[in-house]
Amino acid sequence: LLIFIFLILNLVDCKLEVLSEEQMGKAARQIRCDVCKFAIDKIAKNLEKASRLTENKILTYVTNFCGHPDNSMDNPSFVRDFDVKVIENEYIFVSKEQDPNEEAENDNSLNISWRPVVMKKACLQTILESGSDLSEELYEGIKNKKLNTNKMKNKFCHCQKKKK
């Protein structure tokens, strides 16, 4: 039975590491720019397909995009498509499709149980904080058929150049 449990734990990527609130906060701060850029593109793409949009509908969509802040089980839907890697003590937000040839022994992914928590935290720090202003810009852009996601990313993502 112990061997079976050991095998199951290894199969589901259950590294027994625990991230402190401070480490999760650091990880979220380091990936928040990339999460924000991705989220704005995804939100704009989804809303452009929708019909009969009102400012309130857009605000509701934007507010719910990252998952509910008080529900730890309500994670953003994009979590399954992305990963958080740790490279030289820096947290990096990457698409799982970006590096399909990466070998398992070089896996530097954040523990699978912490990925959704960190991604949600980063999403909430950017998208939810900008909620009504972002919603207003999305509404005006869609209504006037002049949606400029690059302008929105510059305005709301607060990205800083990485120091080398």
Q: How many alpha or pi helices?
A: 6
Largest sheet: 2 strands, antiparallel
Strands, count: 2
Distance between the termini: 49 Å
What topology, given as strand order, has the largest sheet?
1-2
Q: How do the helices and strands follow one another from N- to C-terminus? A: HHHEEHHH
In helices, the fraction of residues equals 40-55%
Give the class from helix and strand content and strand pairing.
mainly alpha
Provide the low-confidence segments as ranges. 6-16
Strand content: 5-15%
Mean of all residue-level pLDDT scores: 77
State the shape: globular
Radius of gyration: 18 Å
Secondary structure elements and their pairing?
Layout: H1 2-11, H2 21-49, H3 55-65, E1 82-87, E2 90-95, H4 115-128, H5 131-143, H6 149-156
Antiparallel strand pairs: 1-2
Helix pairs in contact: 2-4, 2-6, 3-5
In short:
The chain has 164 residues and is mainly alpha-helical.
Could you walk me through the main structural features you see in this protein, from its secondary elements to its overall organization?
- The structure is a single chain.
- With 164 residues, the chain is mostly helical.
- Helix content is 52%, strand content 7%.
- It has 6 helices and 2 strands, in the order H-H-H-E-E-H-H-H.
- A two-stranded antiparallel sheet has the order 1-2.
- Helix 2 packs across helix 4 (115-128), helix 2 (21-49) packs antiparallel against helix 6 (149-156) and helix 3 crosses helix 5 (131-143).
- The longest helix is centred in the N-terminal third of the chain and has 29 residues, at 21-49.
- The chain starts with a helix and ends in an 8-residue tail after the last helix.
